[in-house]
Amino acid sequence: MNPVDIYNQAYTRRQFFRKSGTGLGVAAMASLIGEKSFAASQPAGGVAFPQFAPKAKRAIYISLIGAPSQFETFDYKPELVKRFKEDLKGYLAKEGERLTGMTSGQAAFPIAPARVKFNQHGQSGTWISDFLPWHGKMADDLCIIKSMHTDAINHEPANQLICTGSMVNGKASIGSWLSYGLGSMNNDLPAFVVLHAKHTSPYANVQAISNRLWGSAYLPGKHAGVSLRSLGDPVLFLKDNPGVSTEMRRKMLDGLGKLNMKSYDAIGDPEIQNRVQQYEMAFRMQSSVPELADLSGEAEHTYQLYGEDSKTRGSFANSALMARRLLERGVRFVQIFHRGWDQHGSLPRDLASQCKDVDQGCYGLIQDLKMRGMLEDTLVIWGGEFGRTVYSQGALTEDNYGRDHHPRCFSIWMAGGGIKGGQVYGETDELSYNITKDPVHIRDLHATILHALGIEHERLTYKFQGLDQRLTGVLPAKVIKELFA
C-alpha cells in the first residue's frame, strides 16, 4: 500500500475528537433539542461567544488608509500659530525621535500650525475642524480618542498592526476573528464583508493595500473578508453561464460536495469542509447579493441624508449606505477602506478633499442607524493607522505644507455599540507629539472592540503552530471601560 495513503488514513487523536464532535453525537443532540434551539446556542460558524451580554451585535470599521492628520481634524492646537516656523531640530534630537527617510535629512523641522479653523460643537462643546462640518453636527454621538499610539512608523506594517494586531505577515484580521468568534447572523451572506470606497481627489497619494488586511490567515478560510467590487457585478460570476440553469448548478454542487466529502473521509483535512461551505455560500450569494446591491428601493430622503454622492456606485457615501444594508441583513462586520490620506505635501488642499469625501457619508450613516434603532447595538470605528508630525515635511509657507508619519499619538473616533457619545478621551502635549493622559495602544483598541461585542480578548484563541493565537497577541492589552456609557 502507498505510504502516503497509510498516513492519510491513520487517525490522530485530534482528528478522532473532531470527527466525534461533528458526527452522530451532534446529530442526536440536534434531533432532541430542535434545530432552532441548537442554532441559537451556537451562531453559524461561531465558537460559543459572546461570553457576556454584549453592547453591540455588529460593527463597521472605516479605515482611512494613509493616516489623516490629527492637527486638521480633532486635536486642536491654537497656540502653535504663535510658534510658526520654530525649528524643532534640537527638540527632536533630545527626544530621540525615530524619523522616516523622508524627513531625516531635513536641515530644519519648522512647526506648521493647522491652516483650518476649529469650532466647538454640540452640548459637549467638542472641538472639530471646519474640514468636517457634518461631523460637527453629530459631535454628541462621537467619542473622540486623541491618545491613540502605535509601534509602526510606515504604512504597510502600521496597517497590518491595526487590522490584524501584528506587524508580522500571516495573522488573522479583526473581522475574521469576529466571524470566527461570533459566527454569522445570515446564512446567505458572509459574516465579514469588505468595501473599497473611491476617493475623488486627483492629487491623492494612494497607498497600496492587500487582502492580508482582511484575510483569515490560520483561521478557516470561510472567515476571510469577502470583498465586494465597486464596479460591475459586486462579486464575480454571480450569474450562471449561458445554458446553465440554477437547477443544473445545484446538481453540480451536490455532486462536487459528495466528491469532496469522500476526500475528507479519506484524509480528514478540515480545509475540504471549508471548501464545501464556500461553494455553498457562493451559490446562496447568487440570489442574496443582487438584492443587496439594488438600491432602487431606498427613499429619496435617505440619499439626501448620505449626500448626493450616495447615488454614485463606489463612492464613500454609497459604500456607507451599502454598509447599513449589509448590517440590516445580518452581516457581522463591515470594513470600508478609503485610501488617499497620505499628505506629505499640499496638505491643506488634499486633506480638505479627503474629508469632503467621507464627511456627510459618515454623518448619514450614524443618523440612519440611529433612526432605525440600530446604532445602540452597532459599533462604528473611524480612523487611520498613525498620526502626523507637528513639523512640516519639505517647504513651509503661510498656506502650504506637508506632514510626515508620527506613531506617538493620533486621533480616531467611535460611536454606537454602548460607547458614550459627546466625550473626548485622552490628551496630547502642546505639540501633539507625546500623550499626556490616558494612552490607548492598538492592542487596547482591539480589546475594547471585542469587549463591546461580548468577547473577552484573552479567551478568543486559535491553536496554530503550537501556540494559542489571539488578536491582541501576548503583550498586555486592556479594555478601555471609560469609553462606555
Can you describe what's shown?
34% of the residues lie in helices and 16% in strands. The chain has a single domain (54-239, 306-483), classed as Alkaline Phosphatase, subunit A. The relative contact order is 0.20. The chain is globular. The chain is built from 14 helices and 17 strands. The chain is an alpha/beta fold and 485 residues long. It has helices at 3-9, 13-21, 24-33, 35-41, 89-95, 133-137, 155-164, 174-182, 246-267, 270-293, 300-306, 316-328, 347-371, 442-452; strands at residues 58-65, 118-121, 126-129, 143-149, 192-197, 226-228, 333-339, 378-383, 387-392, 403-406, 410-416, 423-425, 427-428, 435-437, 440-441, 462-464, 467-469. Helix 3 packs across helix 4 (35-41), helix 11 (300-306) runs antiparallel to helix 13 and helix 12 (316-328) runs parallel beside helix 13. The strands form 5 sheets. Strands 1, 4, 5, 6, 7, 8, 11, 12 and 15 form a 9-stranded mixed sheet that branches.
